[in-house]
Amino acid sequence: MPTNTSDSLDLYAKVEDLLGIEEATPRLYAHYLLFLQSIQPKTLLDVGCGSGDFLLQMQKALKLEEAKGIDLSPLMVERTKMKGVDAECIDLCDLEGKYDVITAVFDMVNYLDAKALQRFLGCMADHLNEGGYFVFDINTLYGFENVAVGAFIVDDEARFLAIDSDFEEGSYRMELTLFEKEEDTFVKTQEEITQYYHTLEALSSHTALELVSYDKIALYEMDDADKLFVVLQKI
After folding, report:
1. Do the Cβ atoms of 116 and 195 come closer than 8 Å?
2. How do 66-70 and 171-182 pair as beta strands?
3. H or E element that contains 209
4. Does domain 6-143+199-234 sit in CATH 3.10.520.10?
5. DSSP 3-state assignment of 191?
6. What are the pLDDT digits (tens) for 161-190?
7. What's the CA gap between 130 and 67, in Å, rounded?
8. What percent of the chain has pLDDT over 90?
9. CA distance 78 to 88
10. Where are the domains of the chain?
11. d(CA 218, CA 33)
């Protein structure tokens, strides 16, 4: 079974701005902000922080006493740090400290297969304060089958990106082929990203985490919800 490596995550980081997700980002962030405003946390950890945009916005809006991001992509961590946000390239299970809220934004949890998900949920419970919340979103089955799947090509002055993806037996595989301009030539890089569909039952299966709420979200104005916004609480 394919494993997402730091190389594949770094390649994704290089091309994220070409993928057309910017228009949907504010709508997704709004769901997080509304919930976080209702509980007023003092400390927040963002897992899979990416380039740090979400964490920076939440830090400003909520006046957090402590805000930290972690990511397995060194490139993403550097981008977050450049925005003045605390970030570290580390696995959640190797991190120290506990938080009022831990977030995982834009389908980060879908990058975990079934075995990794159970390990992740255990580490999540360990890093939450009593009564703390794990807030995240995942791709729905409709999102995988009707929004994510397909092939397309996009470019700018310095990059040419081709993507081919499919969804089969609960696994979504995206092959990225990037040509980057370096002086008078183009350098090719190719990596594969894998995501996994998870049921709500699997996501709320850990005995220390209780399902508080979930909401269906249609980020791309499709016929059905492509995201599920989920809140778990440590009990």
Report:
1. no
2. unpaired
3. strand 209-217
4. no
5. strand
6. 999 999 999 999 999 999 999 888 999 999
7. 18
8. 83
9. 9
10. 6-143+199-234, 149-194
11. 17
